[in-house]
Fold this protein.
Amino acid sequence: MIGGAHASLRRVSVRSAYAQQRATSAPLDPPDDHGGRTEVSAREDAEPRPTSTVADAARDCALLTRARAVAAFVGPGRPVTAKAVLRRADIPAACAAAELPDPGRVVSAAHVPALHRAWTAAQGAGLLTVGVTRACAAATTDDPPGQWRHGLTAVLRAESDDPERRSAMLVCAAALDVLTTSPGLPDPRFGDAVEGLLDLLPLRDQMTVGHAFRRGLLPETGALEVLAECGALDPLTRTVTPLGRWARPELDHQPAPRTTWTGDDVLELRIDLDRFRPPVWRRVRLPATTTLTKLHEIIQILFEWDGDHLHVFTADGRHYADPFFDLEECAASDQLTLADALPRAGARLSYRYDLGDCWDHTVLLETGGPAAPTRPTCIGGRGDAPVEDRPDEHPPPRPLDLPALDRALARRVSRG
């Protein structure tokens, strides 16, 4: 806690302003029922455009520069691992492309922080699409401030380890507030001042800020690192840049996903059963308005599960389950649609069926767009479905029969 000579830092004018801004701590406004425009996007239209200085700073910051370099390295296609990152063999070349030092021998590309932030920012900014086995660069409009906002949001959500993925955003906002009021504030006074502002948050947010950065960094240390990389502050002088001043209110309102499907769109999903060799997967087309509850029923049909066990979805760090069972820390699965859970091609979520045996699935959105009204349709797959409850050590698999699976989906639709 802050004491003695440092106590005045908690009484500066930013404290009351911060308390007023953060008291409600409202989450991101959800898309409307039809997947159309949101309150966030309407608010974006009402806000003034950033100046050319801010736009240039966004384009030239280290985070977006590295994100573009990684996307260019990937080009028309590079293989990815089961964890949706570059293979170890590609790490040195990817680091060289992004002008990062060779990290030497590492277990995964996700263990190279600067490279992984660039990879994550490239996906959030719409520069990169990651599929089941390959990633490819994506065509995108030249909108540096928009790419910056979406890229930084993706990075901060990935860094956060709290259920709502907001903790890194909260800490970065507090760090900018401190350095706006007290430029150049050194350690440990900077850390004390950030802590003082975070103490003004609602209790539920105070409980999460310790989870702001996954690598075990102190919250204020992680904030300085990320804010410097994205060009929001000068790390040498610890002063907030024009980009940082423009960005500060943006941190209070996370941007809506870059792609929002409408109620008329149809999404094509590939659903893989994890940890199986050879692979076992199914491909299905579904309306974007399908809820996770309905997706659960569809997965049960596609993999011929018996439906006798609990299940949990995990989308963007949050858990969803059947509200009837009131599972701890799980939101209701009938309240989230595929349009919201999978906002763009390459997005994915996980599905665990049977919380004891843990049949884990990865659900990947491969593509989507306008289409004629359609029922859930199975259009591809590979691998026989395993027997659910393992009656013996080597149970016979159930042979893949795609027409039969599609007929079963049609029967489910007819039952309503």
